[in-house]
Amino acid sequence: MPEGFTDWGIMYDLGYGVPQDYSKALEYYQKAAELGDARGYSSLGVLYANGYGVAKDDAKALQYFQKATDMGDAEGYNNLGLVYAKGVGVNQDYFKAITYFQKAAELGSARGYHNLGVAYKLGLGVAKDEAKALRYVQKACAMGYQKACQPRQHLNRAIRFSQVLPRGQINS
After folding, report:
1. Which helix (H) or strand (E) holds 74?
2. The domain 2-169: what is its CATH number?
C-alpha cells in the first residue's frame, strides 16, 4: 500500500513518534510516489519547495506538484496554487493560483478553501470581497484546518509559502 509509505514519510518528516529524519522521510515519500501515491508526490514537492532535508529546488517541487495534480490530488492543486501565488520557480500569476485553489477546494482541501479566503481578503487575482473571504475560511475551519479558525488574525497576513504549505501535508 503506497499510502502507508507516505504516512511513514510524514512520521519521519515531522518527528511523530520517531526521531525527525528528513532522509528517511524522503525515502518513504519516494517509495510512495514510485508506487503511484499522489500524496507521496505532493509531499516530495513540499520537501523540495522548502529545502527540508534536500537542496531547495523549485523546478523539482513544481514537477512533483504537477504530478500530484495529474493524479487528482487536492493538496497537489493547493500546492500548485501556492507556487503560482508566490512565483516560486514560475512567473507569479494570481489568476492561475485562484484556479488551482478552487480545484483544491472542489476536491475537498480545507487549505484550498483557506487560500481562497486569503485571496479574496487581499484581492489577489480576484476582486476583494471580505464576506466571501470569511465564508471560505469558515469552511476551512469547519473542515478542521485550525489556522483558518482565527480568520481576523490570519486573514490580515499575506500568503506565506511555508506557513500554508506545511511539511507532511497533514490536514490538521
Report:
1. helix 74-86
2. 1.25.40.10
